[in-house]
Every structure is written in C-alpha cells, then in structure tokens.
Amino acid sequence: MKFNLKFLLITLFICTISVAQNKGTISGVLTDKETNNQPLPFANVLVKGTNTSANTDIDGKYSLSINPGNYIIIFSFVGYESVEQPVTVKANETITVNKVLSSGSFTLKDVVVKSTANKEKETALLLDQKNAVVIKQSIGAQEMSRKGVSDVEEGLTKITGITKVEGRGLFVRGLEDRYNSLLLNDLAVPSNNPFKKIIPLDIFPTDIVSVLETYKTFNTNLYGDFAGATFNIVTTATGKSQTKINFGAGYTINNNLKKFLISQDATSTSDFFGFSGNERDLPSALTKTPSNQTLTADQAANGFGSGFDVKSDVSPLNTSFGITHSEKFNVGKKDNVFQYLISLNYDNKFQIRSGADRIFNTAQGNYDNDLVTTQYKFITNSSALLGLTYKTKRLSLTSNTTYLKSTENLIQDQLGYTNSNAAQTNGFIRMNQLQESTFLNTQLFGNYKITEDERHTIKSGISFSTTQYELPDRKSFKGIKMDDNTTSISYTGNSLTRQYLDFKGDQHISGLLEYGWKFGNEDLSKSHKLTAGYSGYMNKMGSEFRFLVSQNLNSNSATFPTNTPDATLNNEISNNNFTYREGTNSTYKAMLEEFINAGYLDLALKFSEKIELNVGARVEQTHRETKYKSTGSFEDPYQKIINDKTDILPSLNTKYILNENSNLRFAASKTITRPVIMESYPLEFVNPDGTIERGNEFLTNSANYNFDLKYELFPTNKELISATIFTKMIDNPIERLFTNSAGSGGQIITYGNSNKALLYGAEFEFLFQLERISKSLSNFSLGANAALMDTKVTIEKTFENGVNNPETIAVDDNPSRKLQGASPWILNADLRYDSEFSEKWKSSMTMVYNVYSKRIYAVGTNGLDNYYEMPFGKLDFIWQNKISDKFDVKLSVDNLLNPSYKIEMGANSRIPITESDLTVREYKKGVGFSMNVSYTF
Q1: I need a labelling partner for 680 at 20 to 30 A (CA). Which of 28, 336, 344, 362 fits?
Q2: 480, 488 Cβ separation under 8 angstroms
Q3: Residues 230-256, buried b or exposed e (16+ Cβ, 10 A)?
Q4: DSSP string covering 823-846, please?
C-alpha cells in the first residue's frame, strides 16, 4: 500500500508539472477606487465557466495559470460591483490585466455574504460583524492560518475576552466552560467528555473549519443555555477542486527527546494512531452486576488483558499530517452545483508536566497531601469529515459526517506523603491510565427559497450524534519508593486498584426548523423580517463504574521493579499471596435522559436608514430525568430525580447607525445556565491520591439577566475600534468548591448553587494598520482586545434544609466574595508584519500575546481560603510563508516566556496555617517549536 501511494503521488506530481509547462499565465493588480486606488486584498478572480480562481494577496496581486484559449475573467469583492474582462491566453506567455473595483451603487446594506469562501476572509467577517444586529464576532480560515492556529479552541482565543486554560476549556469574559454552548452548523451537539460542558475544542483541527462564530449576546434562535457565549462551528465546504496535503513536526523543551514513560500496552502501531484494542476491557470473570466477588488465582493472573508494566524510552517529536480533497461539478442543464469534501487529520504530542501537587487539611491547617507529581502523556487526536453539498438556484442542501477520536495515555508518578503522614516523604503512587473519547455526528441541513426573490425562506436541519468517554482499566499502586528503580507495597488499604469508567452517549438527536418572511418594502434590503422556528434536542446517556482492589492472602507485602512489576505480581498471585476482589459499591450505575424543546419568534424591524431592532422571545421546555442507585443493596431500585421546567426567554437587540463607519448597539436578554454533566451527576470519581470529584444531583439551573451596550467604529474595511460595557445578574450561580472527605483524609471537589451573583465590566478592541503612523510602517498591523470585570457573589449562611453552609465566609455578616472562575481582566494582542521576498514568496509574521488575571479556582470551605488560579501569560510567534501557488510553510514558536501555571490557596484562611508555601499546583509547559508544510495540487 505504501508503494502504491508513493507511486500515485509521484505520478500526479509529474503530470502536474508537464501540464503546467504548456499553460499561460494571467496576472495583475486589483485596486480599490474607494481608497484612492490602494491595493485591494482578498478579492476574488475567477475564470468564468470554470473552477479556476485565485484571491489577491495583501498587495492586491493575483496570478492564474490556465490552458491556452479565450476566456472571460470576473473580478469581484464583497460589497463591490463585479467587473468582467475578456482575455486571450497563449501557451508559455503571461498577460497582465489590472483592474479598479468600486462599490458603485452598492451600500453596506446591500451586502449579503453568501459565499463560504468569502466568509473565511478577515475583511468579509468584519463586514458581517458590522452589518449584524446582534453582537457577534467571528474568525475565519484566513485569519486562523495567519495566526498559526491549528485547532478550534486556540482559534477562539483570538476573539475579544476569550482565554483558554489547559485541560479546562475556554473562558469567555472570565466565565468558565460551564457558561458556554456549542453548535455545529447551527445544530446542537453533545460533549464527548462528561467533565466538560462542550466538546474539548482542541480536538477539532482548523482544516475542517470555515468560520468560527461567537455570539456574546443572546438571540432567540440560540439555545437558552447561554451566559458566556455560544460558539457555532461552520465546517468547511470549499467551492474549489483541489487536493491539499500537510505534514507537521514539533519540539517542546523538556517534553520531547527526553526520558518518557509509556504503558507497555500503548506501544503498538495502532496505539500510536489512537486505536487501541480491547485488551483493557473489563475481565469476563466479573459478573454483570457487581458483587463482593473475589477472583480465583487463575482469574486474577490471566483475566486482565493489560498490566502495570511501563516502557522507559525517549519521547520523539510531535507529528501531524492531514489530507483534504474537494471537487465541484455542474449538474444538469440549469448549472446546478454538486460539491464534496473529504478531510482526514491526525496529530500527536508527547507531554511532560512536573511540579508541586498539594491539598490542605482543614483540621490542622497543614498539608494533607504534599506530593511532587510528574505526568507523562501521549496524546492523539484523529478526525474525519465528509461533506456533500447540492445547490440549485433556490435550494442548498448539505450532508456532513464528522468523526473525532482522542486518546491520552498517562503515566503519573506522585512522590511525597498523603493523609498528613509527613514523616513518610518517600511515599509513592503510580497511575497507569488510558482515556479514550469518541464523537460521531451526522447532519443534514439546508435552506430553501420558497419564493425566488428570497422574501419567504425555510431553514432546517437534523443531527444525530453518539459519544463515548472511557477510562478502561485505570491501574494504580501505592507504596514506598525504596530507590530509583524499586517500590515496596502492602496489599491492604487499596494499595493495588483497577478502575473502569464508561460514559456512553447512546443517542443525541437535535433538530431545527425555521421560517423567514421579509415584508414591508419592495427592496428586500430595507424590509422587516419575521422569523419563527423550532429547535430542540434529545440526549440519552448512561455510565458504569467498576472498582477492583488487592486482597491479601498468605502475604501482606511485595517488592518489585517500579517499571516492570507484572512478573512479580503474577508470581505473587500464583503463590496465593494476594488476589483481587471487587470493591464496587451500589452507586456504580446511573442514567440520564434530557429533552429540550423550544419555539421562538423574532421580529427584525428597520425603522429608518439608521435604526434597526430585533425583538423576540424563546419558550424553552426542559425535561431532565436522572436515575441512580444510592448506597445500599445492589438489588435496590433506581432513585429518580425529575426536573421539568419551562423558561420564557425574551431577547432585545438594537443597532443605531451613527454614520457609514460606526454603530451603537444595545442588547438585553434573559437566559439560563445548565450544569456540566459531571457537576450534577450522582457519581463519585476517586483518584489514587485520595482526592475525589463528586457531582451534586440537586444542582439547579441558573437564571441570567444580560445587558450589553457597544460602540464600534470601522475606519476602513480592515480596521476596527470598539468598546462594550456589560452586566449580568445571575440567580443560583453554579460554582466549584472543595471540602475534606469524611474518614481518613482526602479532598472532595464538588459543586453547589450560591444565592446571587452580579457581574459588570467592559471590553475594548482595536485593529489598526500602522501606516496611519508612518508610511514606513505600511506592512505592519496591530490588534488588541481587553476585558475588565468585577463580580460579587452573595451566599446563604444556612441552606433551606437547615444545614449550615460550609463556606469559610458563611460565618460573616452578609457574606459575599468574587465569582468562582471569573477573571477580573484579560488581555489579547497581536502584531503582524507582511512582506514579499519575491514575486511568489509572500510572508506574514505575527507575534501573539494573551494573559489572564488571578481568579478563584475553587471556593474555600471549613476555615480555608479559596484556591486561586494565578495570572498566566502566553507569547507566541508565527511565521506564515506562501512560497508559491502550491507550497505553504508555517514556522511557530509557542509559549516563548514559559511561565509557571500555578494554583495557590489564598492568605486569608480563618484557621492557623502551619505551612509557609501556599502553592497547591504548579508546573511549566515548556517552549515549543513547530513547522508545518502543505502542498496543494
């Protein structure tokens, strides 16, 4: 197969070169009449009746290679009048065609961005933002490429007020993941990770994305679960016939080419690509329903497909590769269009994290755990997209199938002490874990013009998804580290454990049906619009957790090589010194069913040339049924918690056009916040170091009241200045808190509803071309955005059931504090330099910086202060090169400053703290260097 692929690529390359030698070239410069004939970048140049096209570069230059013949060239740009020019092309000759485009009779109100290719451009997205009534920001494929963005999560951080935290998703206006919602092509999709509100967006490669849309104000066609933002991923649907392959490699200091531990079960070729076998499945000897079963020697020795052994090696470079192929055809006599796109992508990375890992004891004010944790992670992400689109004059129909698979092989070593046993500084815990998640989604969506003039339209879609999140055979042992290569354990006290966690999203079905009617004016661009629609989804999922522990028999201890304990342990089992027994309790299984049904009505009114108003309401009905088993007998029936609620969610968005280049906007709405699945799920997730994450099945939804006022100025089609003030009032905000577990130490992270929260703040953004300062800076542009926010949360001293609130500040009069997860300020900035080394080699260098401020990670209880996430700044450099029409090369340096990621306990605990270092968690990511090369056929 390898030989055939190489042969095919070489043949295609030779054919391409031989054909190109007989072609002619059309080149030239497009200029903009509206800016005194300045170059017009990102305009479209199309050979009429063919799929041959090009876009002008930053200097308005273009070049087309085409077979000899007579053609008509169409020059176009969003909001400008198109120009046609006949040309005659001769073999091996170049003809020059320069053109001037102007807006002519077009105004901004005449512009409707219909082309997906155009919407990927920064200038078109700025225009879309300018014309929209709702407060919306987008980033397209062009800008993501320029800024070196490789995944969706990173791309969204380039939008005002958005930051990401490794492993914890996106924070919008300082609000964490639980306040966000995700749409895929306007249709709801589930998370494939119960610990995250939305799919971890770093597994979405940007190669399958056209535009990332971010809505920071609510509109009735969006789901009511809205407080931070709603993200809509518009998948790519290129109108070009082309094939693109890319390959990348990366090196991160102290991560790659270093000593690296990986499970012996994760060293095969299939493991490298993220497709492991079933060797970690639950042993067949275990009964379907848990019991206090003790395994026989044969079952304990031979029933597990994987073991504790790890391989010590040197971590190679990170790698990535992908291929995207698209075709476009004219079908039938009416020039109906059919196009398809296939995209396959894969990337991996080797990651090492090492640093302090502690929790505090509320009884004594000292460390309960004081560990140095070192993690070795081998991470893979695979994706596939198949897109089919059929378009006629009045119908656009698209079918997309998206598959995402992510794996993380983790070896975690923890050295120090637990349970306040400070005398034992060489306590050692090793965990061997595989985390697998899959997401499969199929969508069918379309638009139909009921009337040819687009006065009546219908938009509809349906989506089906399945997800799975697994931790199969999560193994750990706990004992004493005798030396660098030897560990001693006792078989009692859960020293050897094997855990199995499986979350299955059996079906998630979402649908959308929307009718639009433009009325009140013959000119549709000046018409009012009435929109009525339905959107909703059904989500069914279940989970199962199994737990096995060591059981001592003829012996109570063993000593073995730390990296290769399997031989010793199997010998111990054969000698009847220990075995495994099931320690699963009756709470092992739970199920969730959720139905969301909503109808909405929106009226868009254009009162004059300057005033536009969108007013509407969404009626959203929620049914959520949780089934779980409480502590007791395995035979006890399921407990049920049923929540039924109907929310009426009004929305108001207004825009006042101050002049041709500036707008004033106001938005007000009521929305809700639903908890992350794990936050409200009746499951206790136990880690080997004694820390626990526990859901709270009695959490309630938050109610949010949102207000935004925004001014924006567009000096040119490439520049922006904006300022926004906003406020949110939240009833029953959901927050993370920590407390000590009952019994022998350990910490519980859980979730609760506070009473009320008030947020208010401001956002600022600008994008400037620096030639305003000096002509010598004409190749430079500077962009920056910042968000400032203050918050106040009030809490109840006593809950409704009479139980005292465990929060540390609950003893105060009128207790209040900052909102958990909210950053008082955020800053993003980028400086760009564009240049040309030759006629074909064009370059763009960008320096990108983002930083967030200190914020509450978890709320303190039982006398301890809060845990705080400390400020973290990230500086990246990206050098994007288009060496020719075919070759692109991107060089990146990531995390140049390499600061420490740090969580600290605050200094205002109400009990004496005997430790001098309040650090809870700390590590460094390392500075990363990467190169990506792509070739387009």
Answers
A1: 362
A2: yes
A3: bbbbbbbbbbeeeebebebbbbbeebb
A4: -SEEEEEEEEEEEESSSS-EEEEE
Q: How many Å is the Cα radius of gyration of the chain?
A: 30
For 564-612, what is each residue's pLDDT tens digit?
999 999 999 999 999 999 988 888 888 999 999 999 999 999 888 889 9
Strand, coil or helix: what is 808? Answer: helix
Element (H, E) at 272: helix 269-272
CB neighbours of 621 closer than 8 A, spacing ≥ 6? 595, 596, 597, 598, 644, 645, 646, 647
DSSP state for residue 800 in the 8-state scheme: T
Distance, in Å, from the CA atom of 208 to the CA atom of 151, rounded to the nearest integer, reads 10
**What is the length of the chain?**
937
User: What's the Cα-to-Cα distance from 12 to each of 6, 15, 200, 378, 926, rounded to whole Å?
Assistant: 10, 5, 37, 35, 40
The whole-angstrom separation of Cα 99 and Cα 46 is 13
Contact 197, 221 (CB under 8 A): no
Q: Which of 344, 435, 341 is CA-nearest to residue 387?
A: 341
Alpha-carbon torsion (738, 740, 746, 751), positive or negative: negative
pLDDT in tens, 479-502: 999 999 999 999 887 889 999 999
Q: Which residues have CB under 8 Å from 166's CB, separation 6+? A: 901, 925
- How would you classify the pairing of strands 99-101 and 310-314? unpaired
How does strand 734-740 pair with strand 589-606?
A: unpaired
CA distance 554 to 576: 6
Cα–Cα separations (whole angstroms), residue 50 to 45, 86, 293, 329: 11, 14, 70, 10
**Using CB atoms within 10 A of its CB, is residue 839 exposed (0-12), middle (13-18) or buried (19+)?**
exposed
**Number of other residues whose CB lies within 10 A of the CB of residue 162:** 27
Pairing, β 229-235 against β 242-252: unpaired
Query: How many angstroms separate the CA atoms of 429 and 425, rounded?
Result: 12
185: left (phi over 0), alpha (psi -120 to 50) or beta: left
What residues pair up with 906 in beta bridges, in sequence order?
none
Secondary structure (H, E, C), 642-698: EEEEEEEEEEEEEEEEEECCEEEEEEEEEEEECCCHHHHCCCEEECCCCCEEECCCC
Residues 6+ positions from 321 with CB-CB distance below 8 Å: 245, 246, 247, 248, 345, 346, 347
For 2-38, how does the pLDDT look when each residue is reduced to its tens digit (9 = 90+)? 434 444 444 434 444 443 446 788 988 888 775 556 6
Nearest Cα to Cα of residue 536 among 508, 515, 506: 508
Cite the beta strand spans of 714-841 per DSSP E: 720-731, 734-740, 747-753, 756-769, 780-794, 816-817, 825-836
Burial of 715 (0-12, 13-18, 19+ CB in 10 A): middle
> Which H helix or E strand runs over 2?
helix 2-20
What's residue 937's pLDDT?
85
Q: What are phi and psi of 525, to 5 degrees?
A: -70, -15
Cα–Cα distance for residue pair 388/27, rounded to 1 Å: 33
Task: Find out whether 183 and 211 touch, Cβ atoms under 8 Å.
Answer: no
Separation of alpha carbons 171 and 187, rounded Å: 22
Classify burial at 350, counting beta carbons within 10 Å of its beta carbon; exposed 0-12, middle 13-18, buried 19 or more. buried
In whole angstroms, give the CA distance from residue 829 to residue 765: 9
Cα–Cα distances (Å) from 583 to 205, 296, 550, 682, in that order, read: 41, 15, 9, 18
